[in-house]
Design brief:
- The protein is mainly α and 416 residues long.
- Helices cover 48% and strands 2% of the residues.
- It contains 16 helices and 4 strands.
- It has a two-stranded antiparallel sheet with strand order 1-2. A two-stranded antiparallel sheet has the order 3-4.
- A hairpin with a 7-residue loop joins strand 1 and strand 2.
Length: 416
């Protein structure tokens, strides 16, 4: 297979994907089923108009292009009442739209109103988490994950400096989350505080009857580590934060597995695995942002930077470099998206390389981008509009590959 010129190919595919989303995709009001996206929702950063709004807003700021397209998509995102209930979070509802608006100039009044609503959502999530911990109950992953939990709301607040007091409350709640708890329905043994009750809907569900602990960036404790580390790096600290970073880091490192092309991690740990140390998963799966080595290694790199630990920073960078230069692991990636595909790998490596103290990450960027270009060439821009699981995100990452600019939109992935 011929590898195209990275800069020209990236620019061409970025333009094709973004320009293909010049007009909003119209979805019948009351339906979350788009033409080719069964999970389409206007208020979604993942597969909805909010995410496309963000992408066009970023490009308008970068290229001095018209903001009209971003505003057209914004009108699509807000055409129905914005969700501010328990299901709302960084990736969906009022907070998702508020996050997207931050990348559009001239949306100040609307941004202020939505920011207040997002702050209220966050406040209620913090209070709910404290009540749950007071009752010595176990959490569900959506209490603390990036998509709609406290890690995601903390990421949102990083872009809203006027709400730093609330961000500190989020951090304090997440510090408390990291304290061990006893699992009453499993013999009273201590497990990490992020041991969730969620029952998976696939695979051998019997092994999850006593809950599990996830290692992924999207839904696991790795996203919390990334938030705690990013805040500490920016000078935003609360009591116990450094200890919480160490606690999560040490747990993640304890589940590191040796491989022929570097180390890898399982997606989640069940109670039998916790007790015996013997994993059901025996090999690395796709190297994605959401559950794979790239997301985990970036979070460990951020933690090491926050703590001033150059030894662990070098180790995290080496782990990431070995993963993304292993043909066997790269061949497992069949998707172009940010969440679990090539765009997520490229965006993560770009930011990890910018912070790196080792030389191995930067040289991989061209090859990884060329793989993304090849996958992007087969995408229909309007097949899955959206940022995190859609073509707008792919186009945005390809655009980044042609510039030296690094706008902070990737805070919604906690890799910035």
């Amino acid at each position: 297979m011929t590898v195209p010129d990275v800069t020209n190919g990236a620019a061409e595919q970025a333009a094709r994907l973004i320009e293909g989303l010049a007009l909003p995709v119209r979805v019948d009001v009351g339906s979350d089923h788009g033409p080719a996206s069964p999970r389409w929702q206007d208020q979604s950063l993942s597969q909805g108009a909010a995410g496309v709004t963000l992408a066009h807003g970023v490009l308008a700021r970068a290229n001095d292009r018209s903001e009209d397209i971003a505003h057209d998509w914004l009108r699509q995102a807000v055409r129905e009442e914005l969700t501010a209930g328990p299901g709302a979070g960084l990736w969906f509802g009022v907070s998702a739209v508020a996050f997207a608006i931050r990348f559009i100039c001239g949306a100040d009044e609307t941004a202020v109103a939505l920011d207040a609503a997002a702050a209220d959502v966050t406040d209620r999530k913090v209070e709910s988490a404290h009540r749950r911990m007071d009752a010595r109950q176990r959490p569900v992953q959506f209490e603390f994950d990036i998509t709609r939990g406290l890690a995601g709301m903390g990421a949102y607040l990083l872009t809203a400096p006027q709400n730093q007091d609330l961000l500190e409350r989020v951090l304090g709640c997440l510090v408390r989350l990291t304290e061990p708890v006893a699992v009453d329905d499993a013999g009273g043994r201590d497990v990490p505080g992020w041991w969730v009750t969620d029952q998976l809907r696939r695979g051998d569900r019997a092994q999850f009857v006593h809950g599990h602990a996830g290692l992924g960036m999207a839904h696991g404790i790795t996203g919390v580590l990334a938030l705690l580390a990013t805040c500490a790096r920016r000078g935003i600290r609360v009591d116990g934060q450094a200890a919480a970073i160490v606690r999560i880091r040490d747990w993640i490192e304890a589940w590191r597995q040796p491989g022929t092309a570097g180390t890898w991690w399982p997606e989640r740990i069940t109670l039998p695995e916790h007790d015996t140390g013997v994993l059901v998963q025996t090999a690395a799966r796709r190297p994605s942002w959401c559950y794979g080595t790239p997301g985990i290694a970036r979070a460990l790199q951020l933690a090491a930077i926050a703590l001033g630990d150059e030894g662990r920073q070098r180790d995290a960078e080496t782990t990431l470099a070995r993963c993304i230069t292993d043909p066997a692991q790269l061949d497992l990636v069949t998707d172009a998206s940010l969440c679990h595909g090539w765009a997520g790998i490229v965006a993560t490596v770009r930011r990890a390389a910018a912070d790196a103290i080792t030389p191995d990450l930067a040289p991989t960027f061209g090859h990884l981008t060329s793989r993304l270009v090849l996958h992007a060439a087969h995408l229909d821009p309007r097949s899955t509009p959206g940022l995190i699981n859609g073509t707008a995100g792919v186009g945005l990452v390809l655009h980044e590959a042609t510039t030296t600019e690094q706008p902070d939109w990737a805070t919604c992935l906690l890799i910035d």
